[in-house]
Amino acid sequence: xxxxxxxxxxxxxxxxxxxxxxxxxxxxxxxxxxxxxxxxxxxxxxxxxxxxxxxxxxxxxxxxxxxxxxxxxxxxxxxxxxxxxxxxxxxxxxxxxxxxxxxxxxxxxxxxxxxxxxxxxxxxxxxxxxxxxxxxxxxxxxxxxxxxxxxxxxxxxxxxxxxxxxxxxxxxxxxxxxxxxxxxxxxxxxxxxxxxxxxxxxxxxxxxxxxxxxxxxxxxxxxxxxxxxxxxxxxxxxxxxxxxxxxxxxxxxxxxxxxxxxxxxxxxxxxxxxxxxxxxxxxxxxxxxxxxxxxxxxxxxxxxxxxxxxxxxxxxxxxxxxxxxxxxxxxxxxxxxxxxxxxxxxxxxxxxxxxxxxxxxxxxxxxxxxxxxxxxxxxxxxxxxxxxxxxxxxxxxxxxxxxxxxxxxxxxxxxxxxxxx
Length: 421
Ligand code: HEM
Description:
- The chain is α+β, with helices and mostly antiparallel strands.
- The protein has one domain (2-420): CATH 1.10.630.10.
- The protein has helices spanning 2-20, 47-55, 65-74, 83-93, 99-103, 106-117, 130-147, 155-174, 186-211, 221-227, 239-252, 255-270, 272-280, 283-296, 328-331, 373-390; strands spanning 23-28, 39-44, 60-61, 127-129, 303-307, 311-313, 316-318, 323-326, 391-395, 402-404, 408-410, 415-420.
- The chain has a five-stranded mixed beta sheet with strand order 1-2-8-5-3. Strands 4-12-9 form a three-stranded antiparallel beta sheet. A two-stranded antiparallel ribbon has the order 6-7.
- α8 (155-174) runs antiparallel to α9 (186-211) and α12 packs parallel to α16.
- 40% of the residues are buried.
- It binds protoporphyrin IX containing FE.
- Protoporphyrin IX containing FE is lined by residues 78-79, 90, 142, 248-249, 252-253, 256-257, 260, 299-300, 303, 362-364, 368-372, 375-376.
- Heme binds at residue 370.
- Keywords: Heme, Iron, Metal-binding, Monooxygenase, Oxidoreductase.
């Protein structure tokens, strides 16, 4: 199946679901051979199976090829760590993301949203790339909220690096045999070079943080990382650990939110009547539009786990060592829970609905669910309310070409015209 996945991952997954249903096995590599080159990947599409994979303790881990490759690229921060190390990191960082703590960022987010609305490139009637605009917004918010920093100078660099690194990482994850990064092939050299550029951005953020008001009492993420101590050994985090953590939050903290906003604004731009209702509606309707945008285009569209022991998913036997994939992109179109699945309809998320918990999981689930969920929801609704109060968004394209990389990204600029209301 590897060639089909490389050619059209989303189409292949949807086709597999429509043909075979709630649990599908895909074979990668030659039919026979050692597990390193010949393996089955099990996709669970039904909410019950997803529930099992996300929440059964000590059965499904992150020791998968995808997460190993991600670790090579972005180190061992909260997203990629596992076991005890992960638990310690999550405990250190969780207090920064409680709903109360996150609510404290409302003002900063509002100011940044106003800045987007006042941006000279958004001049009435001119064409904008929504993705570009939303990436800038999300990066500025993360920079200020988590690192107390103005990351503007890094924005063009990150906008250049993200697609390159995602592409390199995905290609590496789909390779059956991977040369270690220390072997100098053209591809590993490229990875090493782009990765160094990425850590250059991180080091600049850490250096600026250290220069600012030394000794001042702050409680942003960097201060917390500097003061964190291992409860058993009393050791502080190493420089490497701090760099990796900053990188993970810089990337995970902006890429997905920017995607969610881009997709939602594009959809609203395609359906002017819905947009007008949302623009005049209350906060709940704005939130519903965002949730519906992430239903159709979930920025974290797929994830994977490794079955560490022999187990079952939805009654099917799954041997130890099997890769298990979950795709919100597919489950969010499951017709048992989402009638007329391709229709954009924010009312799916207004009022009362009874759906299984895992019919919808844009933020994942179980203990490893997104730590930034409240942060992202607040940040995105603030932007939508601010922008829609000021402008009517007209989408210039009726179709969205998607690039499923590590996250779901638009394959090309998402063009829109903003007209004052
Ligand atoms: C709309 C925006 C976002 C979406 C759709 C999203 C989605 C997700 C998903 C699905 C996961 C779980 C991945 C898995 O199970 O393999 C996750 C994990 C994570 N997210 Fe988000 N995320 C968003 C915003 C954010 C923000 C704003 C931050 C940080 C400020 C963040 C930081 C993280 C981190 C660090 C993890 C790893 C958590 C752990 O394993 O303990 N995310 N996210």
